[in-house]
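Bench log, entry 3. Co-assembly request; chain sequences pasted below exactly as received.
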Amino acid sequence: MHTLAATNLDLINLAKWIPLLPLIALVINGIVLGAFKPARKFAALVTILAVGGSFALSVAVWLGMGSASEFTSEQAFVIVRAFEWIHIGGFDGFRADVSFFIDPLTVIMLLTVTGVGTLIAIYASGYMAGDPGYHRFFAYIGLFIFAMTILVMADNLLLLFLGWEGVGVSSYLLIGYYYRKPSAVAAAKKAFIVNRVGDFGFALGLMGVFLVFGAVQYDRVLPEAESVYWMQEHGLDDGRGIFSNTIDDADPIFADAELVIPNIVEVGKREAEIFGSDLKKTLLIIIPFLLMLGAFGKSAQLPLHVWLPDAMEGPTPVSALIHAATMVTAGVYMIARLLPIFQLSEYALYTVAIVGGVTALFAATIALCQYDIKRVWAYSTVSQLGYMFLGVGVLSTVGGVFHLFTHAFFKALLFLTAGSVMHALAGQLDMRKMSGLFRKMPVTAILMLIGCLALAGFPYTAGYYSKDLILAEALVAHPWLGWMGIAVALITAFYTFRLWFRVFTGPTEYEMSNEHHGYPSDHAHDDDHAHHGPHEMPILMNAPLVILAIGAITLGFLTHDWVKDMVEHSTAGAARLSEPHSPAHHAAHVEVDPHHTDTAHHDPYHAAHKLVSTITKIGSISMILLAGYFFWFNRKAAERIASAFGLIKRFLENKWYVDELYHVIIVLPLRVFGWLFYLFDRLIIDGLVVDGLLRYTPRLAGEAQTPLARGVLQGFAVVMAIGVIAVLAFVMYSVL
Amino acid sequence: MEYLTLNHYLLTGAILFALGVIGFATRRNLIVMFLCTEMMFQGVAVTLVAFSKYHGNLDGQSFVIFVLTIAAAEAALALGLVVYLFRRKQTLDAEAWSAMKG
Amino acid sequence: MAYGFYIASVCGALAVWLVLPSDRRKPIMLGVIAGAATLGGLLLHTASLAYDAEQGTPSLYYYIFTVLAVLSAVRVISHPRPVYSALYFVMVVLSVAGMFLTLEAEFMAFAMIIIYAGAILVTYLFVIMLASLPPSAYESHEAPAYDRVAREPFLACFVGFALLAVLSSIIFSSVDPITPRPERDAVTVAIEQMPDRITPVLLAQNAINIDTNHPDLTYRMEEGALIASIGIGADERIELTSDLREAIANSIGNIDRVGLNLFESHTLGIELAGVILLVSMVGAIVIAKRKVTGGNEASRHEGTEAEVI
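Structure output for the full assembly:
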């Protein structure tokens, strides 16, 4: 067991400042700059400094942690305590503190969130320039980073939930950022409401976890879940199991407790009788599905994916940061973090994998036929998130998290370049109205090309490595899901380059839109776009894109081993789960390094990996070429083929009619019910009860009494006394 | 030697209370009416102290202190109002103020 | 038995009706006789309930104070001049205070006299003086009609005595008369709530030997004896003789006990009472500051008002 040096702990203790800096930025931007107009132009600077500071602190924490393998599995985490939050009940009671759970998985998430967040904030400082809500935007970004870091650093489920809701709120605020646009407001509401469905499940799951494990802290829940799983696997579950709530009188802990707080022990015993271990076993099966619902809501998986494409109504940096790179991956993170709990339910992870795989295919087919650039990337995000769930679902947490990590870079890059195009064309997003923009904005074109290559899984780019990892594991665990994933990879390559070729190649034609910063422009200032036409972005906006692009190319082979090492030594390390407390065992489990030529491992993973990498290498290149043929050289042919399959095309263009389906099965019945209740309220409640009974009864009663009320004080007193006498007489004759 | 029961004191309290009610209802002078309410308080106070004694705890006596508080507050407000009303109509007749006639 | 109360109530109602002020001449003497008969009957009845017991209260004072209180109360409601009503009310208060003394509520008795007779009644008298016509008006039989004539005396008497009939029926309906319950043992109260009162008593009686100045000195009861303790192994056992018991009980008076009860069980009530007093004070000031509109002689009273404030 490796003991951390004191200096390292000092570095790790810096973690408590990571969420605080963005919070300070929120306060400064929201309150100080909100009140003090002339300083508003510094809003971006404040947020960039705060988020960049968080990133620096994250790096410090990472350095403090040392290399992940030193950070051994026995002591795989450090808990940094900030302050006490909720303590209910003394001994064995409910405890949720604001303290942070620092392990390699947390660090990866922190680096991703704050790193990508910093780059996007820099980009946004140029993109949002001149917007009337400049400081408001950066205040929201601060809020988002605060909530997101809380989410990934939380050491208990309740704090996780706090961050979870926090990112939900900031997402809502940012989608509805252009609040004068009705479609943005509707999209914000849609996102919020759909997320409520998922959060409802998540909250129930949280309560279930507390019922079963008697705690919500990771360091109490996860080891216990692992032990239970281990006992299940080895057939050692004797009925009493590891459930610590089942109180044993002979247990010396409780003998002590009896001296101190006898009442608690009594309560505990009663509880143990009520929630016998049968109920707990049932709960253990249900809990993962409830938590899963939350993950699907936040990460836009079927059937709760509908909010994410609409969320593109927000400013483009927001789409990149929240709705592509970070927030939507919270579901993946949560499942990876709580993997031990998910393993306790036999079908939970399989369900996750199926939903992920099906969503990946479903969203990829939709992306194939969309014309709105941001919508294509949105559906592509849904599809890639599906990959991540597939990865986590087949126990390849390394693959899932690695894909999350690389995806954050190339998807942010894609969204931001799309934002550049949109910016250049004054809000134009319809790819039918643009063509051959390469000559006008070559840097943007090349940057987007790099992103597209990574997304398409072009050999040796970042997306290629992470996707392979997932597909190989899937192919071994559930072959049909693996093949489906491979098909999705091919479709992905095709629709990605369909977009790129349409926008940047071919004859240079374009049609400017008339929007500026989400509002229809009606004053002369915005007309300069129309006069000058598409132009290259300023260096401030392109610099972060270059960094992202470098990441999109190199992260695959540079960080592959690092991520594997990190994830395997966190609580999400799948290898540890089958055999707890034996870190030496993990090496044999996940071994799909594409460069790995060690022939000692002739396991199915190795073979599967070889197969997958061959197929995707050939497949992605050929799909790119195919897309190039149809959308660069011979667009007529593409249209002919599309019109030949008109029915399917329309079906995909309309996103499988999911929104319409929801409209019919959810919205319409609710509306009908609403009308029925409205009628009931109007006719029965208002008409009969309020206007009839309630209006005339007191009036009649009052009319009947007027002769008695002569307006003299003593008269009232006498009547009151008569009433008292009547009551007393009744008491006397009936009770006594 | 004779000894007493709770019932004796309750009877005294009841008599004082009933006389207060009668006075409140018959007298027309606002000031005397309020005196009569004070008399009802006296009846209640006797009852409370008697209960306190016969139940063997002091809650009743504590409540008498609250009754005193309320009586003092009431006297301050009611008498202020009475003076005010008297200066409006130069009379203390309660029937001069019958705006609540139905 | 209940019929006795009904007859008494009818009789009392007749008496009060007769003595209430009226313009017509009424046989007041008949009323006095009827009232005396009612009161005498009721008291005789209650005297028959009195029982022999070891503990109790001397009854003579009860009867004296009850008769005084009831007679004064009748005069309060029947006297045509408010000043006299108020003075008779002072008599009622004094009788009630006396009754409190028979109930061993000394603090309450004096509080009653000081607050009611002293403070509240003086305020009443002030207001009566301020708001009444000069006494000469009464002597010349020109007192205002609202003081000379009672309002619907018959109905009021009927209602009032119906109330009394019902109340007395309920009061005397219990099978066994209720007798006093002893208060908590004074020594236990002293140990729990006022341990500092014990030491002087013990010293005065020369009943304690250990160091009474020790900061850790505590008392407790054990098997009927008082244990004084200044730490583990340093206990002294003090047998509680009846003298000692009485001395300790006497060291804690009625005021101590009421205070303890008030601040232990009714803390919120005390706070609320304070708030009510404050609010009523504010209200009284607001009312007094108000300018009178519509009064003919408003200006005449302005000076007085300013002085009152």
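The helical segments of chain B are 6-26, 30-55, 59-89. The mean pLDDT of chain B is 86.
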